[in-house]
Every structure is written in C-alpha cells, then in structure tokens.
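Supplementary Methods S3. Complex input for the zinc ion-bound model.
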Amino acid sequence: MIAPIRLVPLLPMSSEFVSSFVHPLRSIFHTKIIVELPLNNVLNAVYDDSRLQYNSTQLIRELLKEFPSSSSKIIGITSVDLFVPVLTYVFGEAQLDGTAAVVSTYRLDNAVYGLEPDPILFFQRSLTEIVHELGHTYGLYHCKNQECAMHSSTAVEDIDLKSAMLCNDCTKQIGVSN
Ligand SMILES: [Zn+2]
Ligand SMILES: [Zn+2]
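Predicted complex, serialized as structure tokens:
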C-alpha cells in the first residue's frame, strides 16, 4: 500500500465537503484516507495584504509545521484564493515526491466567473485538483494524456477537459495496487 493520505480542512472550508472526497480518493489511490480536524490559524499566517491572496508556498510550510515528520501525504484544502509570486493565481501546489500539498477551490466555483452554480461540476473539479496535487506528492510529473488528472491546467476550462482519474501509466508509476 502507498502512503496514507490526510485531508486537512482549512477553515472556513467545511469538514463535510472535505469528507466527501474520502471514497473517491480511496478508489483512486487504494490507500487509507484520514480526515483531520480543521485548522483555524494557518491561513492568517500566509495572507498577503498587498495581493489580497494567500501564499501557497508558505501555506505548505505552515502545514508541515502542524504535522512534523509525518509519513502520510498531507493535503490542505481551502476556499480562499492562492498565489505564488510569479503567477496571478494557482489552483494548488505540492512538494514533488514530498509530504505536503494544498488545493484551493476558489477558482473552481462557477460563481467566480459570473456563471450559475453547479455543485456537481464544482465537486468534480475539486476532486480532480486534489488528485493532481496528491499525484505530485507521490512523485508524478505532468502527464501528456489529456484525460489524466496529472495533465497540467492553467485555466478552469482545462480542468473540465480531464478526469479525476490517473491514467494507467501514472497509476503504475506510483505503485498503486488493489
Ligand atoms: Zn501540477
Ligand atoms: Zn497520466
């Protein structure tokens, strides 16, 4: 079995929403999925008041402080907008072949684009990006297969072209077994 996954809701993200990823993630990674208690203080520590966004690289660092020397994969899930200094925004960030990752659902919500809310699409996009960032923590690079969750996405339209599943090559590479 590959390393277990710890899902960490970052308030105000709801634990219920985060818990809805347990079953699909278990069927994709075939490992133990744990939902941690929500963290309250980490986002404040990484807020950039000139950009009005939250620094994703610093957020990963804060997350690692909360889970020192963990042998699990740790993914923080947040509803606020994340950035890295060279980009306008990011959907998430991960330590390649490392421990921690973060995902933001902020730009996965139709409401941000002035469109009708679509809860099923929102869930699907969120799952896809969680799988993508977790894939990086297991050592996966971006995949050329356009339907694979590890295909890179810079806009939300790109996410809608792929699935939440890993392709056979990526699955094989991280050693997922039933
Ligand atoms: Zn990526
Ligand atoms: Zn792939």
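The longest strand covers residues 73-78. Residues 9 and 15 are 6 Å apart (CA to CA).
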